User: Fold ABC transporter substrate-binding protein from Microbacterium sufflavum.
Amino acid sequence: MKLRTSLIAATAITALGVSALAGCSSGGSDDTAAGGAALTIAKPDGAITTESNNPFVGDSAASKYGYAKVVFETLALVNQTGDRGTTPWLAESLEWNDDYTQLTVVPREGVTWSDGEPFTADDIVFSFETASIPALDTAGLKYEGAEVDGDTVVLSFGDSKYVNQARVLHVPIVPKHIWEKFDDPATDPVKGDDLVGTGPYAMANWSTESVTLDARDDYWAGDLAVPELHYVSYGDNTALTTALANGDADWAQAFIPQIEEQFLSADPEHNQFLASPTTGSATLFMNLQQKPFDDPAFRQALAWVIDRDAYVDIAREGASEPVWSVTGLSSILEDEIQPEFQGVDYKVDADKARDLLETAGYTWKDDALIDPDGTPVSFTLSVPSGWSDWNTAQELIAEDVKDGIGAEVKIDMPDWGGWADPRDNGTFSAIIHWLEDSGTAYGLYTSTMDPRWISPEGKAGFNFGRFDDPAATTALNTYANASSDEERTAAIDTLQTIFSEQVPAIPLGAHPLLGEFNTRNYVGWPSETDTYASADPTQPNIVQILTKLKPAE
Assistant:
């Protein structure tokens, strides 16, 4: 099995030197940076009323606006698209042991915190101790401690991190000399002089309407072309789209219906949009504990009538790619599709679907599908109201299923709570949802077949259909904890066989990272021909983009 060496390397990854990183930035003088234009980064989340700059807290202002990513940096940056490569960042080099339970880190030299204090190995150890506090450990680190030997840090974990390397490498690194005085790092708002990071920008002003950050003139990776960042939160996607189109906002991550008319055509020379495929997919999850989805034959038939091309072309307006492989994997993971499944794809084939159903004892009455018990087949497909792309997908799937096999699909568009509660508690019929994105095939298969996502109380974090097959569970555990590619190859072969035969879920299209931006003042953005990062400003790779931007001619 071919895997991306950048994600599984058993030898140290050579870091980019400071001079090389500086060479990717503007390279201009302080006067040039000071005279440059600010960038306004937009979110559609409405007013954010309370200042909290804690990067470990998901609903803090820093996390919601996204500016935590330019203040607090990470050991490395994992590219979720393109080559899925890893770029050491605050680490000079990184090396995993054979079973991925230990990570050896050499901290980058010459890095200072924004208050002038030096960045050290002790900051790394303290940050992982903080991130592993139960109230903050949303990544399930199972961190067991560290050993510091000079400038080398060895971080130890309670289980293999092979499938969760990005979660380890993207832990925010915080200053020990500031954070060790906090009574409770899980709740401290980290304000005023306590807001200290290694990142390229530092807080200048905070309000409920917008946040301003200034470029540091002592940033370790060199001069920055963009002197100032404004983070603004608009009331909804419509207001955000208007701001992007008229130039009030420069950069955002949003799904914009009719993006050509609504954004790109407003300034065809400068307005840009990049959809970057990831290893995750928008996926039809079915409740496998109730009719009609408790029958694998019905699930197989569905997989042969749902038009993934229509999902991409109509619902996503081209901002995705269809997933047709019977393994459920998109093209970004084609190197993990086993030889026997290479080129084995679904297509829209109603005759094939009807043959499967007829063999399983289904019949038709006046074109309506009747199950073997004599009951008309019907189910409800639920997506939150306002999720326009997936709301359109609901209608498309309903039409495909009705026309293809004669089953009725009822459309449900509740609010978030009315969608999430049945999802978590297993009382839904069918939903569209995203996947856990591990950077490997494991993300799809754990999301759809792994019983570990079901809590003792019966709530689901993923595997919403509650699929449970001992062979799949064993293969998932082997893949996650194996110490050799041979073991993983055997495990992935088992998983792909089970997935293709039992169809526990139906991926529709790759779930991309989206980015809207303009080139009026700066160039050097990611593109389809230079996929060094996605253009999504909410991702850790934003610091990589900001070091590459330079003034437009």
DSSP finds 19 helices and 22 strands in the chain.
